[in-house]
Specification:
Length: 63
């Protein structure tokens, strides 16, 4: 798989709050935990973590 943002079958070049809202209304928060990890917070209290690479343009994927 290409190292791009993936969620609900969609591949995104970059991630913003608006990107995730556009893909899934279940998600309402993205927290930057550190330079490696982001956290998605969903409306049903299920939390998903995203790992992201350090290389610019490599993006990240839901894990």
């Amino acid at each position: 798989m290409n190292p791009e943002w993936q969620l609900a079958g969609h591949v995104l070049d970059s991630v913003t709050y608006a990107d995730f809202v556009a893909v899934s209304e279940d998600y309402f928060g993205i927290d930057i935990l550190d330079k490696y990890w982001l956290r998605l917070v969903s409306r049903n209290d299920h939390t998903e973590y995203i790992t992201q690479t350090l290389n610019a343009g490599d993006g990240a994927r839901v894990v």
